[in-house]
Amino acid sequence: MGKLVIVGTLAFDAIETPFGKTDSILGGAATFIGLAASHFNIDAAAVSVVGGDFPQEYMDLLSSKNIDLSGVEIIKEGKTFFWKGRYHNDMNTRDTLVTELNTLADFDPTVPSEYKNAEFVMLGNLHPLIQASVLDQMSETPKLVILDTMNFWIDNTYDDLLTVIKRVDVLTINDEEARQLTGEYSLVVAARKIHDMGPEYVVIKKGEHGALLFHNKHVFYAPALPLEEIFDPTGAGDTFAGGFAGYLAKTGDISFDNIKNAIIYGSALASFCVERFGTERMIHLERSEVHDRVMQFKQLTQFNIELT
Asked: What are the tens digits of pLDDT across the range 95-120?
């Protein structure tokens, strides 16, 4: 079992969907990644920054999930990152209404000394220079580095993003962003171009249509579990990444076949995340529920066929 460093935001989110709305609630990439990864009983640490307005009860909650918070900087006179968004009726598109960087604007990450030799690093959605700074602090080359990014960084920090992408083993990105990054409509061609940028593995997330894993000429597809209702997609991609990274850190096996298993675990955990607003479902999720849902994925995709 390897150590996992999680880099990302601890944040406040305000969410509007066709099912209702919330005021400021717990959110952020590192939060969702950490909650998902906690299901694998691994040694994980979060690297982030918050303001003095971040409640101690949220810190206690994350600590109770065995997430080391010694790498979380608290700026008492500052305010925590805040995001507000509204989802459309199809729940696949959203409008960002408010983004307040606050303490994140000047964030200079510090990896705790006992985690600088971590075998696994999950670089959550942040400025590429912050992601690169974390890699610079590692005392040993990690066994696997996973990077998540989004259209904002592709638009505004393209050169910096390409520089850090060269240093990672896995890139997780959604289909729209993969096309934007490469200028290719075909996801197969887009994945090939991303391979050429550096990553050995490319994971393209397709929301309610599942996820694709590319490795050289090998392709694996994991469907999304059909759900009766989706309350809030916020954090689903980060939850997927946390399950993906957590499973690999737990098993220590980074072969293509085991990364396929990690895709299934990530997809299973993400399917829980969307069932409630924010982190509510993930906070109370039981390990037995995760096991049962992974079995549902297995039944969904497994079949016997007689070739003729």
From this structure: 889 989 999 999 999 999 999 999 99
pTM value?
A: 0.95
Band of residue 298 on the pLDDT scale cut at 50, 70, 90 = confident
Q: Please write the tens of the pLDDT for every residue from 274-286.
A: 999 899 999 999 9
Give 3-301's CATH code, choosing from 3.40.50.720, 3.50.50.60, 3.40.50.2300, 3.40.1190.20: 3.40.1190.20
Distance, in Å, from the CA atom of 235 to the CA atom of 73, rounded to the nearest integer, reads 22
**Residue 137, C-beta contacts closer than 8 angstroms, at least 6 positions apart:** 109, 110, 111, 116
Q: How far is CA 204 from CA 38, 170, 263, in A?
A: 23, 11, 11
What are the DSSP E strand ranges found in the chain? Answer: 3-7, 11-17, 20-21, 25-27, 43-51, 67-75, 82-87, 94-100, 120-123, 144-148, 170-174, 201-205, 211-215, 218-222
